[in-house]
């Protein structure tokens, strides 16, 4: 990654303008050609820096239900249970974490009732009793933006 | 709320947009509408707050952010609003929610913290604690990532 890639990633994380030639507008801001811009975006995707370039929706506003779930899983059983959980397309993130609640996952469903039905199914398939919905109350921030700055290391440390 | 054309457009946007000089025109030909109609609808999703942005989502580890921690806080109920607003001002905090309690787990505000490494995340947690005066918190570092995808709203 060079400095141009980093500037490009900063602009792309902020968002494309909703116009007919968005990459031309982005290229203009970064100071490169539209063609170079598209070539770099293609490469950054191939290299696994960009996971996805697409729409970021507000789950709630779109009328869907999102939830966090915490489970207490016997440590030796973690991989098996996590594999069952990850099978569901509704599950978007699934992480093992330290502590008594050692498996945390997020899911997006049409209605809250669908989430509860899915948890019942997971409970019976995994034979894990402690499966808890952790509903959100007030939302103070949702902004997954990672400044790239002049160098990645600097940016990651927010120097 | 969403008609057939909206559903087709959302289905395109929830994945990857085409890497084409005219990505919305390319989407238009896939969904069988004009580019102008597709752009008009996408702008309306943004205006209504359904769509936050059309943007790059990074693999943050590859981008240099190897630390990722869920930091959970025990905040007195009457201070949750103040705490949440202050924690949200930290750029390293990507998500901040009030959440219902779990059995034997009295933490009611959850923050996702990203940094260069685990120590950087711990430092952010200390800074949030110093700023807010809330001293009871736990850092739940991720031990293993099993799955990370974007939401699929319309199958």
Short description:
By secondary structure, chain A is an alpha+beta fold. Chain A has six helices and six strands, in the order αααββαββαββα. Chain A starts with a helix and ends with a helix.
- End-to-end separation of chain A: 19 Å
Largest interchain contact: A-B, 83 and 80 residues
User: How much of the sequence of chain A is in beta strands?
Assistant: 15-25%
Derived from helix and strand composition plus strand pairing, the structural class of chain B reads alpha+beta
Number-wise, the strands of chain B total 5
Rg measurement of chain B, Å: 20 Å
> What string gives the helices and strands of chain B in order?
HHHEEHEEHE
Give the number of helices of chain B.
5
Overall form of chain B? elongated
Poorly predicted ranges of chain A: 150-159
The major pleated sheet of chain A works out as:
4 strands, antiparallel
Total beta-strand segments of chain A = 6
The helix count of chain A comes to: 6
Order of strands, widest sheet of chain B? 3-4-2-5
State the end-to-end CA separation of chain B. Answer: 16 Å
Low-confidence stretches of chain B: none
Which geometry of chain A do the CA atoms define?
Answer: elongated
Oligomer state of the chains in this structure = heterodimer
Please identify the structural class of chain A as seen in this structure. alpha+beta
Characteristic key phrases:
heterodimer, A: 159 residues, alpha+beta, disordered C terminus, B: alpha+beta, 4-stranded antiparallel sheet, 26% strand, elongated
3D structure, described in words:
Chain A has helices spanning 3-14, 22-30, 34-46, 78-86, 112-126, 152-156, and strands at residues 50-57, 65-71, 91-97, 103-109, 131-133, 136-142. By secondary structure, chain A is of the alpha+beta class. Chain A has a 4-stranded antiparallel beta sheet, covered by helices on one side. In chain A, a hairpin with a 5-residue loop joins strand 3 and strand 4. The radius of gyration of chain A is 20 Å and the shape is elongated. Mean pLDDT of chain A is 89; it is low at 150-159. The longest helix of chain B is centred in the last third of the chain and has 15 residues, at 118-132. Chain B starts with a helix and ends in a 7-residue tail after the last strand. The model of chain B has no long low-confidence stretch (mean pLDDT 92). Chain B is built from 5 helices and 5 strands, in the order H-H-H-E-E-H-E-E-H-E. Chain B is an alpha+beta fold and 155 residues long. The interface between A and B is large, with 83 and 80 residues.
């Amino acid at each position: 990654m060079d400095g141009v890639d980093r500037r490009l990633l900063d602009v792309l994380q902020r968002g494309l303008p909703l116009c007919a030639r968005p990459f031309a507008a982005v290229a203009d801001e970064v100071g490169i050609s539209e063609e170079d811009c598209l070539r770099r975006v293609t490469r950054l995707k191939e290299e696994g820096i960009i996971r996805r370039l697409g729409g970021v929706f507000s789950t709630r506003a779109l009328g869907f239900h999102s939830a966090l779930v915490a489970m207490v899983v016997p440590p030796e059983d973690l991989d098996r249970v996590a594999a069952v959980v990850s099978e569901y397309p509704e599950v978007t993130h699934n992480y093992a974490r330290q502590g008594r609640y050692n498996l945390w996952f997020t899911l997006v469903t049409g209605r809250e009732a669908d989430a509860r039905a899915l948890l019942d199914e997971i409970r019976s398939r995994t034979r894990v009793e402690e499966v808890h919905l952790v509903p959100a109350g007030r939302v103070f921030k949702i902004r997954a933006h990672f400044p790239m700055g002049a160098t990645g290391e600097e940016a990651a440390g927010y120097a | 709320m969403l008609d057939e054309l909206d559903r087709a457009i959302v289905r395109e946007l929830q994945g990857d947009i085409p890497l084409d000089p005219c990505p919305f025109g390319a989407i238009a030909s896939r969904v069988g509408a004009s580019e102008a109609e597709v752009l008009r609808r996408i702008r309306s999703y943004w205006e209504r707050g359904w769509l936050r942005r059309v943007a790059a989502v990074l693999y943050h580890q590859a981008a240099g952010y190897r630390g990722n921690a869920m930091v959970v806080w025990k905040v007195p109920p009457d201070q949750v609003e103040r705490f949440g607003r202050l924690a949200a001002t930290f750029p390293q905090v990507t998500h901040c929610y009030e959440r219902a309690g779990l059995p034997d787990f009295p933490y009611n505000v959850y923050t996702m913290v990203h940094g260069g490494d685990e120590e950087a995340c711990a430092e952010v947690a200390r800074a949030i604690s110093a700023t807010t005066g809330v001293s009871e918190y736990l850092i739940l570092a991720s031990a293993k990532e099993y799955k990370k995808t974007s939401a699929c709203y319309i199958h």
